[in-house]
Amino acid sequence: MNKQQLKIFLPDGSLQDVVEQLFRDAGLPVSYGKKRSYLGSLLSVYLKEMIDVVVSQFRPWDMPFYIAIGSAHLAVTADDMIWNAGLLEDERITVLDHYPIARQGYSKTRLVIAVPNDSPIQRYKQLTISRPMIPGTDRKSLVTEYYEGAIIWAHKERMDLEIINCHGKLEAFRHFELADAILENTESGDTLLENHWRVIYQIMESQTCLIANTKALADKTLGSAIKIIKRMLASVIAARKYFIIEFNVTKKAFKDVKTILLGYSGYLEKGQSPTISNLLNGDFEIKVVIPCHKLEDLLDRLDRRGVSSIVTKKCDHYIP
């Protein structure tokens, strides 16, 4: 009996390495047959028993459309890519999760409209009523890589703009007076500032996201496989925020240490308690999961209570 096939699109380009690392950490390594092949598979023994998984590399820009029409069932893209395709509110696409991952480490980016520093424009609506910068044109120009999304956005905002498609390096347009405004995806905003652009409007925040075809989610087999992948990826993202601490504590100091752990709600997730084991000599072993940013403080407090045999470990998976 032939198994159903789950089709997954993963990004090439700048997101490829961080996304494939996330899948590896989740126990779902991607394997491509040949070095330059764009077609591969997901090496998961558990999933292989229930479904055939086919992985293909695609540009994140194109993924929302193919997910919407059902050519693929699951993909990793970004919010701004869905916006550019005009599919943010399309019921054929379900956004399953967001991930704080990017090539340069920024968890979120911003899709903004910027104008030159010396431009009189203060609000984006003024783009339609001021004189164009480019000679011989009747309308203000908005230069962007997000051509389709910009056209849809300008139409919804009832703005008569000359939308110009560009393939990168938008900041350089300032030096030659080639644009009245740019619609750009920025991380820190430093490049815009260095090239004398001023942000006048933020359209949205964007983050890497996992999307699925809504009909595929409703399918018993496809939906089950998608939910397993989502859970495994989410457990890795969650685990990156935590450390596991194990240590021994004497019977005499046990009460004070337990009070420290339970008295600081920031250390523990709601409803979670330390794991406490009895040792043969009457002392105790304690194991607890804490946020990474609390590790140094907690270690200092425990050291002052005379605990011993402290071991810290990174979490591989964490499901609250």
UniProtKB/TrEMBL annotation:
<dbReference type="InterPro" id="IPR013115">
    <property type="entry name" value="HisG_C"/>
</dbReference>
<dbReference type="InterPro" id="IPR001348">
    <property type="entry name" value="ATP_PRibTrfase_HisG"/>
</dbReference>
<dbReference type="GO" id="GO:0005524">
    <property type="term" value="F:ATP binding"/>
</dbReference>
<keyword id="KW-0479">Metal-binding</keyword>
<keyword id="KW-0808">Transferase</keyword>
<keyword id="KW-0328">Glycosyltransferase</keyword>
<dbReference type="GO" id="GO:0005737">
    <property type="term" value="C:cytoplasm"/>
</dbReference>
<dbReference type="GO" id="GO:0000105">
    <property type="term" value="P:L-histidine biosynthetic process"/>
</dbReference>
<comment type="pathway">
    <text>Amino-acid biosynthesis; L-histidine biosynthesis; L-histidine from 5-phospho-alpha-D-ribose 1-diphosphate: step 1/9.</text>
</comment>
<keyword id="KW-0028">Amino-acid biosynthesis</keyword>
<keyword id="KW-0067">ATP-binding</keyword>
<keyword id="KW-0368">Histidine biosynthesis</keyword>
<keyword id="KW-0547">Nucleotide-binding</keyword>
<protein>
    <recommendedName>
        <fullName>ATP phosphoribosyltransferase</fullName>
        <ecNumber>2.4.2.17</ecNumber>
    </recommendedName>
</protein>
<feature type="domain" description="ATP phosphoribosyltransferase catalytic">
    <location>
        <begin position="59"/>
        <end position="229"/>
    </location>
</feature>
<feature type="domain" description="Histidine biosynthesis HisG C-terminal">
    <location>
        <begin position="239"/>
        <end position="311"/>
    </location>
</feature>
<comment type="function">
    <text>Catalyzes the condensation of ATP and 5-phosphoribose 1-diphosphate to form N'-(5'-phosphoribosyl)-ATP (PR-ATP). Has a crucial role in the pathway because the rate of histidine biosynthesis seems to be controlled primarily by regulation of HisG enzymatic activity.</text>
</comment>
<dbReference type="Pfam" id="PF08029">
    <property type="entry name" value="HisG_C"/>
</dbReference>
<keyword id="KW-0460">Magnesium</keyword>
<keyword id="KW-0963">Cytoplasm</keyword>
<dbReference type="GO" id="GO:0003879">
    <property type="term" value="F:ATP phosphoribosyltransferase activity"/>
</dbReference>
<dbReference type="Pfam" id="PF01634">
    <property type="entry name" value="HisG"/>
</dbReference>
<dbReference type="GO" id="GO:0000287">
    <property type="term" value="F:magnesium ion binding"/>
</dbReference>
<dbReference type="InterPro" id="IPR013820">
    <property type="entry name" value="ATP_PRibTrfase_cat"/>
</dbReference>
